[in-house]
Amino acid sequence: MGFRRPHSQGDRVTTLIATTLARFRMTVATLLVLALALGWDVQHAWCTTPAEVRLVELARSNFANLTEAELALLRFAGAHTAPGGGFAAAGPSSNPDDPSNDPAHADEWSKDREVRAAVIWWLCVDPEAIRSTNPQGLRLLGAKIVGGLNLSTVRVPFAITLRNCSIPEVIDLTSTTIGNLDLSGSYTGPIHAGLINVADSLVLGNGFHAAGRVTLSGAKIGLLSASAGHFRYLPEPGDYLAAFKPALVADFKPALDLNGAQIKGQVFMDRGESLGAVMLAHAAIGGDLACTSGRFINPGNVAILAQGAEIGGTVYLWGEQPLRVGAARRFEANGLLAFESARVQGEFIVDGARFIGPGAPPVNGGGLNGPHLEVRSGFIWRRVSLENGAQLRLKDASVGFIVDQESAWPPPGNLVIDGFVYSYFQPSPGDSPWDARTRLRWLALQPPGFHPQPYQQLAKVLRESGDQPGAIQVLIAEQDASYREFGLLGRAAGAFLKATIGYGYQPLRTIGWSLLVVLVGWSVVWAAKRAGVMRATWPENAPTSSELDYEDLHPFLYSLDVFLPFVNLHQEHYWWPDSKTSGQCGLFGYPLRLSGSLVRYYLWLQVISGWLLSAILVAGLTGLMRSD
After folding, report:
1. Around Cβ 604, how many Cβ atoms within 10 Å?
2. pLDDT digits (tens, 9 = 90+) for 378-414
3. CB count, 10 Å around CB of 230?
4. 557: in domain
5. N or C: which end of the chain has fewer CB within 10 A?
6. Angle between helices 436-443 and 468-484 (to 10 degrees)
């Protein structure tokens, strides 16, 4: 009979572990076989969470034949433990900068990268799907959205990011409510998003391309970023706006419509491009409107329509500063920038910009049009070129101060500043010339016709800055322009008034002219006395030969008596030239024949000059002739 060694405690534990592992392997194998039989995705079976599995199961109960891109979207949306950021990659790479995720080549993508728009809609409206979706929302990269994405009137409970996606059909977001919407780098068709409410940010940049109108009229948006975004107007079949307002669509060709939108923060349209009008009429922007290095192209039409817009920050229409030679990109507008009645709380900066007109001179042909524009701070106009008939029109506009460059001024006839009001010229090296002579060249760039207000405004600014002589120079130039409007006669009258009293702004000039007339009269009377053509009280009260004591003739006092209308020195009363006689006197050694009639004609002329110059002096001193 053999001896049997009793089992130790360690042996029993080892046996139990081995039995458990064997049963676990059998269970796993059974589950794998069952999964394959039911068509489950075994590849991700070890890394899924209950929420992911639940979201996939819910989707399968509503949609047949989920694509790889749809499964990636569902797993990512249901991954509550996933770190923030990242994407559900529809393609082979999760890097947005990878060439495989360029939606410009979406036609080459396989069907595995397709995501049905209905799946996205279901994720946003189905209560069970919403409960299983990560709060970070939907973040899809490099997918092709099939079918029209319609979230109209939907209150989306999470953010949506469709990065580098191809969405060729219409996106309808009319009256949609959402926290964040990011379409960075995506290629889309038209977007109908009137009255959309985006609490935080709407991103249509970073290489975003829209082929068709993007409508955000009446929208409420926290921040709008269209940096490096591309918008292109295309006629849209069945366009409801074209049906009800055909003139608006045909006339403006809108590419991005923000009419009446309310944007709490800033609007970024820098480094982007709009082939069609950007509509900002009566929009309210709480921050800046930044269009740095943007291209706004709508030839012969309106490029930016900001009529009645309220902008709480600064308007940037400028080019980037160059980091190296040739690296700067200018702001460019081929079409009119219309800021009529817009109000800007910050500055209005146009720097490093190029405006292109249509070649002909229509009113709205190109350039910057800002009638009744209000800028609380400064208006900066530097390094600007206006080409092909583009104009700068600031009729009845008002700004705080001006910074500009003479080299950036428009060509003659293309500056409209009638009614333009400003406080001062901000001095800076090489900028803002404020001397009267240079600024008069600025005023001369206005279209033909007399416009008094620009002269008076410039004179007011120069006077308040302490340059009183410069202000007078400008006001005299205003009168020059005024009298030129009355032809040859007006020019002659203007030349006389300018020479005598400087149109009333230099009344003391009259004293000099009066003194000259008196001195000439003194010389004439002296010569007449020497020639013997002056007669004692001729001919009314000629003295008898017995009257030896008679008033002497003093040529200088006689000239004063004749010239001054309100003064009687009794010289003219006692002496008068005899028109019937003539005589001879020496002048600088030469004989001079002088007739009494010629002296009489001169004295009559001197009497008239005295009355006229005296009246002009009084009018000049009292300000009756000044236009201000």
Report:
1. 11
2. 999 999 999 999 999 999 999 999 999 999 999 999 9
3. 19
4. yes
5. N
6. 30
Contact at 8 Å (CB) between 582 and 533? yes
Question: Per DSSP, which regions of 259-319 are E strands?
Answer: 262-263, 267-268, 273-275, 277-279, 284-285, 289-290, 295-305, 310-311, 315-318
Q: Are residues 472 and 373 in the same domain?
A: no
pLDDT digits (tens, 9 = 90+) for 224-237: 999 999 999 998 87
For residue 534, being part of any structural domain is answered with yes
288 neighbors 314 (Cβ within 8 angstroms) = yes
CB neighbours of residue 271 within 10 Å: 19
Tell me the three state secondary structure of residue 416. Answer: strand
pLDDT tens-digit profile of 350-378?
999 999 998 755 445 789 999 999 999 99
Residue 300 lies in a domain: yes
Does 578 share its domain with 607?
yes
Last residue of a domain, one of 403, 432, 461: 432
Write down the residue that tokens 């000044």 correspond to: 626
Tokens describing residue 567: 């003064």
Asked if omega into 539 is within 30° of 0 (cis), the reply is yes
Q: Say which residue the tokens 């706006």 belong to.
A: 241
Same-domain check for residues 323 and 444 = no
pLDDT score of 323: 41
Lowest mean pLDDT among 1-5, 144-148, 263-267: 1-5
Same domain for 310 and 421, yes or no, is yes
Least confident of 183-187, 241-245, 489-493: 241-245
For residues 428 and 476, membership in a common domain is answered with no
Q: Are 91 and 141 in contact (CB under 8 A)?
A: yes
- Give the number of other Cβ atoms within 10 Å of residue 423's Cβ: 15
Range of lowest pLDDT (20-24, 98-102, 291-295, 475-479)? 20-24
- Omega into 507 within 30° of 0, i.e. cis? no
The phi and psi torsions of 365 (rounded to 5 degrees) equal -80, -20
Task: Report the relative pairing of strands 590-595 and 582-587 from DSSP bridges.
Answer: antiparallel
Of the candidates 378, 433, 440, the residue with the CA atom closest to the CA atom of residue 415: 440
Provide the domain limits for residue 462.
Answer: 433-485
Question: d(Cα 350, Cα 365) in Å, to the nearest integer?
Answer: 18
- Reduced to 3 states (helix: H, G, I; strand: E, B; else coil), residue 89 is strand
**Same structural domain for residues 458 and 523?**
no
Total of domains in the chain: 3
2-to-5, 8, 241, 491 alpha-carbon distances in Å: 10, 19, 102, 147
> What percent of the chain shows pLDDT beyond 90?
55
- For residue 478, the surrounding DSSP H or E stretch is helix 468-484
Q: Which residue has the tokens 């009489």?
A: 600
CB 350 within 8 A of CB 381: yes
Q: Which residues pair with 263 in a beta bridge?
A: 221, 285
Q: Tell me the C-alpha distance between 162 and 184, whole Å.
A: 7
